[in-house]
Design goal:
The chain is of the alpha/beta class and 432 residues long. It is 33% helix and 15% strand. The strands form four sheets. Strands 1, 2, 3, 8, 9, 10, 11, 14 and 15 form a nine-stranded mixed beta sheet that branches. The chain has a two-stranded antiparallel ribbon with strand order 4-5. It has a two-stranded antiparallel ribbon with strand order 6-7. The chain binds 2-acetamido-2-deoxy-beta-D-glucopyranose (5 copies). Belongs to the glycerophosphoryl diester phosphodiesterase family.
């Protein structure tokens, strides 16, 4: 209420003086860009303040505290991972996307999978419907799953395998989304629905609205403020061998881009991602304007024995036409400093920068409390886990990524955390 009154008064004052063009907080338009209307507010909630309050005193904490009252703007430095409300709200849904958008994410993600009739839909894995939707509670659809629900017994965990390719697009759009998780000891399909990690919640498991690629594009394009897209082409697991009844990975890669073209979306607004190099090179060759912004997702250094190879490959990737490399945050971070107790840029980060690659990284807010990352063998903080002890360190880590390494954007399961930081340091995202 207080802030709203202030903004209105300020707007009237600026308009009255005829200074709108010079005012630093003015929402700028520009080619293909939609300014944020004066009556739309980015809303960050209490979490960034909780994290800052838990920081060790110092210049970073002081700077972040100085930004407590904003102004907070939509920024493409903040990417809504699986929507952006994923920490609490079922992923890849209208509700998670709206949450990420409200928390200021300027780029919103849809992971792209295909259905039996080759429709493109938003789902993180081609075969995760048994853990992210209510399909097992829908007998007529559950019967179509690649592997039906099998109850737990003394020797085997409960299991199922339901793929988007098992059902038609129309059937897919009838599903309800829920938080990703399952109960390995379940003896009934009802009990199998539960089992989300303790730091997430089932509070919003109230029939999250699934999206097709078409409906996602329409939703994101309709949001207030200038928003960009990051669709990730998923490579199906072994259970869905490609080509799928004649549908090739190459055609699937083309269909994803063609869907944006059909909606009249400019390639400047789209960051197509893939872990599969052939997808990225297809876009570079056949859709150069789209390939120029393609995001090459890298997990080839997961095995410590392969990490140096992944680092040494970076210059060749750049030379082959890749502009944006996207490793998980653990690849970019190392323990170092004079005390060997400081988070520093890794060799991967240094070599990627030297090679002239832009870096987008993933994913913030997927790990729960930092007190537990070492004991829980968390993936994202694995390279710095021995020195992670309290949640305030999240912003220290983000600052190494943001200002020391200079990543161009950050995926987050809770967009507010990243949006707050980006606004405080004036980070605008890729292309800036
Ligand atoms: C941060 O939280 C931890 C508990 O997780 C606490 O021990 C520590 O004192 C807090 N630090 C500050 C500066 O509030
Ligand atoms: C336990 O379940 C597995 C499959 O999940 C099955 O192969 C096995 O026969 C079952 N064991 C018993 C004792 O029913
Ligand atoms: C998991 O399933 C078992 C067996 O059906 C049930 O007893 C238990 O309550 C379930 N746990 C949760 C968290 O739903
Ligand atoms: C490591 O690299 C080798 C050689 O490229 C490959 O065969 C192996 O699968 C890789 N390991 C992992 C875990 O990716
Ligand atoms: C620094 O700490 C890391 C992780 O705690 C450890 O792996 C590394 O060996 C240490 N390096 C030195 C020079 O002590």
């Amino acid at each position: 209420m207080h802030a709203a009154v202030g903004r209105l008064a300020l707007t009237a004052w600026v308009a009255g003086l005829g200074l709108a063009g010079a005012f630093p907080f003015e929402r700028r338009g520009g080619q293909g860009q939609k300014p944020v209307p004066d009556d739309y507010y980015v809303s960050l909630g209490p979490r960034p303040y909780y994290l800052i309050q838990n920081m060790t005193d110092g210049p970073l904490k002081s700077k972040l505290e100085s930004c407590e009252n904003g102004p907070f703007e939509v920024t493409s430095w903040s990417i809504g991972h699986r929507g952006g409300g994923t920490l609490q709200i079922p992923e890849e849904t209208v509700q998670s996307t709206l949450a990420g958008a409200r928390m200021g994410a300027g780029i919103l993600e849809c992971d792209v999978s295909f259905t039996k009739d080759r429709g493109l839909v938003c789902r993180h894995d081609v075969c995760d419907l048994h853990t992210t939707t209510d399909i097992l509670l829908r007998p007529e659809l559950a019967a179509k799953c690649t592997r039906p629900f099998t109850p737990a017994n003394a020797t085997h965990a409960a299991s199922a395998l339901c793929c988007t390719s098992d059902i038609t697009t129309e059937e897919f759009t009838s599903l309800c989304s829920k938080m990703d998780g399952f109960n390995a000891t379940a003896t009934t399909a009802e009990d199998f629905q539960h089992g989300v990690p303790f730091f997430r919640t089932e509070l919003y498991d109230t029939c999250g609205q699934v999206m097709t690629l078409d409906s996602y594009i329409e939703l994101v394009d309709s949001l207030p403020g200038h928003r960009n897209f990051t669709p990730e082409l998923k490579t199906p697991p072994a259970a869905v061998p490609m080509p799928f009844h004649g549908y090739t990975q190459a055609q699937y890669a083309r269909d994803m881009i063609d869907t944006f073209i059909a909606h009249g979306i400019s390639p400047a607004r789209v960051y197509p991602q893939s872990f599969t190099p052939a997808d990225v090179y297809l876009w570079l060759n056949e859709y150069p304007a789209w390939g120029a912004q393609a995001v090459f997702l890298d997990e080839d250094g997961d095995d410590p024995a392969n990490f140096t190879t992944a680092v040494n490959r970076l210059p060749a990737l750049k030379a082959s036409g890749v502009n944006i490399i996207s490793p998980p945050i653990n690849y970019l971070l190392a323990v170092g400093g004079p005390d060997n107790k400081t988070v520093v840029p890794s060799d991967y980060a240094i070599v990627a920068k030297q090679a002239g690659l832009e870096i987008i990284s993933w994913s913030f807010e997927r790990s729960g409390p930092l007190t537990r990352v070492l004991a829980d063998d968390d993936y994202y903080y694995s390279s710095v886990a021995p020195i992670m002890h309290y949640d305030g360190q999240m912003y220290e880590v983000l600052d190494v990524l943001g200002r020391q390494i200079g990543v161009k954007a950050m995926f987050s399961d809770w967009s507010a955390t990243v949006t707050y930081y980006a606004n405080c340091f004036g980070l605008k995202g890729p292309g800036h």
